[in-house]
């Protein structure tokens, strides 16, 4: 009876298998990494294509802009007066700041700015 018990124990023990660290990574970690990369790629793909029609839609009017090069001594006040003489200068300065992502009023000679097109 001890031989039959040992045969059954060996059979039951050999029926299951044990994975080492590399095997666990291969069956668990690697698929998780692949799924994460695919999910990130899908998010980038659908995110970029999801925003593209909104940016290119005809629903929003596109304001005309021009580029100017800042000269020595130029200020936003003076540039706003030259480029948009019919609109209030404060509004023109704010618009120039938005178009160029300016944090302050400091300008450098040679800097290229987007300004609203003059009327």
Automatic annotation (TrEMBL):
The keyword Mitochondrion does not apply. It comes from Citricoccus zhacaiensis. PROSITE patterns: LYSM. InterPro entries: LysM (IPR018392), LysM_dom_sf (IPR036779). Pfam families: LysM. It comes from the Bacteria. Keywords: Membrane, Transmembrane, Transmembrane helix. This is LysM domain-containing protein. The chain crosses the membrane at residues 25-48. Residues 66-115 form the LysM domain.
């Amino acid at each position: 009876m001890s031989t039959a018990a040992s045969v059954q124990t060996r059979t039951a023990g050999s029926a299951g298998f044990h994975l080492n660290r590399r095997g666990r990574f291969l069956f668990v970690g690697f698929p998780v990494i692949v799924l994460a990369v695919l999910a990130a790629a899908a998010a980038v793909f659908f995110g970029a294509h999801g925003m593209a029609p909104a940016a290119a839609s005809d629903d929003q009017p596109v304001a005309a802009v021009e580029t100017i090069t800042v000269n020595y001594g130029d200020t936003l006040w003076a540039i706003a007066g030259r480029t948009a003489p019919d609109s209030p200068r404060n509004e023109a300065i704010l618009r120039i700041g938005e178009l160029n992502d300016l944090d302050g009023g400091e300008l450098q000679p040679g800097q290229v700015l987007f300004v609203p097109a003059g009327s």
